[in-house]
């Protein structure tokens, strides 16, 4: 078996006094699309934020190619080559598309060039001078993904990239994510849209009450559909 690129073990996290994660454990193999599935409030977003060092009180282990990240500050974790695209997308609404793409700091290896970004997302070139706020939901999501590609990160943590988007745009996002995988990126995806997760993901973990309670490889999904649907309460 290939070494995982990211190993999360016994991850716990708190918001103030609230104990939210109770020991999340899972592995992300290189070059795969891995999803975290689960109901609202299960702890998926908190897991991504804890990996990125954005939750102050956390413990356990997060290893990136053997390097322990759990005690590092968020900027060091980002510089190790992991990028996070939050559900609210994190783009600057007062800046235009091109400015948004020029802003992200790049890590040592250098990020994706603007030309490459425009090749992946032609719409962003067309919309270059438009302000962040003037973009459609789908365009904003593409800009958000494009921004993290500019950093040069090879592991992308995406929180519900399909949220609130029309089916045709969801499909476009799926095509882009799959293309990024083919180019060697590793993607950890939080998803509420199970149909999207199923189509896109290679490996799925179910999060429940702040723990990973089950795991399904792509080939196991069809035979476990009822079980997974029960987990998700859909
Ligand atoms: P969702 O899809 O609704 O975001 P989730 O699985 O991502 O669900 P989290 O957002 O990780 O769940 O939330 C886990 C729990 O932590 C929830 O009970 C939520 O109310 C709580 N929580 C999230 N953010 C905070 C915060 N900033 N302060 C306090 N509690 C929080």
TrEMBL record:
<dbReference type="Pfam" id="PF00005">
    <property type="entry name" value="ABC_tran"/>
</dbReference>
<keyword id="KW-0029">Amino-acid transport</keyword>
<dbReference type="InterPro" id="IPR027417">
    <property type="entry name" value="P-loop_NTPase"/>
</dbReference>
<feature type="domain" description="ABC transporter">
    <location>
        <begin position="6"/>
        <end position="234"/>
    </location>
</feature>
<dbReference type="GO" id="GO:0016887">
    <property type="term" value="F:ATP hydrolysis activity"/>
</dbReference>
<dbReference type="GO" id="GO:0015807">
    <property type="term" value="P:L-amino acid transport"/>
</dbReference>
<comment type="similarity">
    <text>Belongs to the ABC transporter superfamily.</text>
</comment>
<dbReference type="GO" id="GO:0005524">
    <property type="term" value="F:ATP binding"/>
</dbReference>
<keyword id="KW-0813">Transport</keyword>
<dbReference type="GO" id="GO:0015658">
    <property type="term" value="F:branched-chain amino acid transmembrane transporter activity"/>
</dbReference>
<keyword id="KW-0067">ATP-binding</keyword>
<dbReference type="InterPro" id="IPR003439">
    <property type="entry name" value="ABC_transporter-like_ATP-bd"/>
</dbReference>
<dbReference type="InterPro" id="IPR017871">
    <property type="entry name" value="ABC_transporter-like_CS"/>
</dbReference>
<keyword id="KW-0547">Nucleotide-binding</keyword>
<dbReference type="InterPro" id="IPR003593">
    <property type="entry name" value="AAA+_ATPase"/>
</dbReference>
<dbReference type="InterPro" id="IPR052156">
    <property type="entry name" value="BCAA_Transport_ATP-bd_LivF"/>
</dbReference>
<protein>
    <submittedName>
        <fullName>ABC transporter ATP-binding protein</fullName>
    </submittedName>
</protein>
